[in-house]
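ERR on first pass: missing label on line 2. Operator R.T. fixed the label and resubmitted. Corrected input:
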Amino acid sequence: MNCPKCNSSSHKKNGIVGGRQRYKCSDCDYNYTVELKSTAFSASVKRQALQLYLEGLGFRSIGRFLGVSHVSVQKWIKKFGQELEDLKNEN
Ligand SMILES: [Zn+2]
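pass 2 clean. output:
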């Protein structure tokens, strides 16, 4: 993450404001915030991804549609697939 003002990559953490990490640029003292990355996507987004996949959309299309990376989509679908296989094996 670079400073939006001077594009410097050197910064100090300067607290968290409204769920965002605030940084202070070491070069120009400009304060800027970055959305904290949520590692866990909500279950509803994953469910939507699965639905779109079942509709025949590709990982990239699903990713574009939901605003997530196609790598995440791929992982979710793979996981769903495994769970489905497990269910089949149980029955
Ligand atoms: Zn700066």
